[in-house]
Structure formats: structure tokens, C-alpha cells
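Case study.
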Amino acid sequence: MGNGETTVEKESSTERALDIPWNVVVHNDPVNLMTYVTMVFQRVFGYSKERAQKHMLEVHQLGRSIVWTGVREPAESYVEQLQAYLLLASLEKSQ
Amino acid sequence: MTVEVTRTGDGLRLAQLDLFFVELLRQVPVSADPGDSDAARDRIYPVASNDPHAAEANEEWRTYVHPELKQLFTTASETVREDLRTFEELDDSTDSWAFEIPTAHFDQWLNTLNQARLSLAARFEFQEKEMNQSGPRSIETARDLSLFQIHFYGFLQECLLQDLGG
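After joint prediction, the assembly is written out as follows.
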């Protein structure tokens, strides 16, 4: 019983560690067209054109934009999808 | 140098191409290949994290994700290569060629054009200022030609994106 509780606590601890919010970050590069980046955000995240353009402009003007925040597994999937469109995307732990 | 771009029922038609532009188009899948350039390969296949403590996660990314990306990029590039077999010579006396990008292949073209632009930019270390200019004033070196390619491929991407509603 005691051992079982300990195991459960360990699992919960691990789950909490994995559930720390993760940011999907897109970084600026001088090559990708602004219209292309906007289209990719619309396709990958289903964002409206206005929201996609807001993130695109953040990337362009500030050098990076956090385009999504959440648990690790979907965050990794989003980074992979963005890289498949050749955007410079990475994963980072949310502060 | 002019290129006529028109929308047809089945795709995007490029006409009035001279042999220079025909060759630039034939170079799309060639330029897309990062080849032996580490800079180009690192740009086409980035890691998942910039955190210096994420070496293990990045190694896993290289092992599991990069092969999937490579498969996707290779498939897109092969589609473009196949499409490029369909050039029509309209008038051999005026050196005028035409070519159509099928609507169903727009995504593969966008992807391969992007691979080519990114590979060339990384290989020749073009800076943002050069990318924002309208292109080289003259083409005298391989670097000038590559910058012209990047701008021409960007123009094609804009045409495809307009058609996709971008």
C-alpha cells in the first residue's frame, strides 16, 4: 500500500515535470516570405489571418514569436510541422 | 528579361521563358539539395531546442525527426523534378519556352523553392540587407547568380501564394 502510494507520487511528479508549459517559438530568418509565414501559421494552428499576421510581424520585427504554449507532446508535434514548412522553429520551457 | 505568368484552369503557366530562366527553373531541385554545405544542412534540418542543456533531446530529434523531414523534402523535390520534364518550346526562332506548375503540386513547389532559397542563402551567407534589396544589379559571380535565383524563386512563391489565397 505504502509502496503503491510512493509509486503514484513519483508518477505524478514526472507528469508534472512533463506538463510544465512548453513554448513553440518561431525565429526570424531573412529568407522566408512574410506571406508564406502567415499561411503556415494559418495551416498549422488554424489561426485567423489576423492572428497569423500578428505572429508573423512579431517574428519579423522582434526576431521571434511564441506561437503556441502547452504540454510537451503537441508542442513537439507543432515544431516538427513548422520545420516541415522550413520555418526556424524551436521548443523552450515556458518561464 | 520578362516572364509571363498566367493562371490557367489547371495551374500556373509561365511563358516567354528564355533559356536562362529555363535553366534557373531546372536548378530548383538541384539548389534545394544542401549537399556538402554544413550551413545549408543545419538550416534545412534544425534541432528542436536552442537550450545548451538539451543535447540529448536534440540528438533524439536528429534520430527520429530529421529522417521524416528528409523524406518529405525529397518527395517534394522529386515531384518538382518530374514537373520540370514538361517544358514546351513555343518558338525556336525566338527562344521562347513555357511551363505549367499543376495546382495539385503547388505545395511541393512552395516547399522545394523554399529549400532552394534557404540552401543558397546559407551557402553564400546572404545577410538580411541583401535579401531585402530587389536583387543584384548585374550577374558577374556565382554569388550574384545565387542572389538572383533567390529573388526569382521568391517571386514564384509569391505567385503560388496569391493563387492559394495568401
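Observations recorded in class. The mean pLDDT of chain B is 90. Chain B touches chain A at residues 43-51, 65, 68-69, 72, 110-111, 114-115, 117-118, 121, 126-128, 131-132, 150, 154, 157-158, 161, 164, 166 (CB under 8 Å). We will return to this complex in the next lecture.
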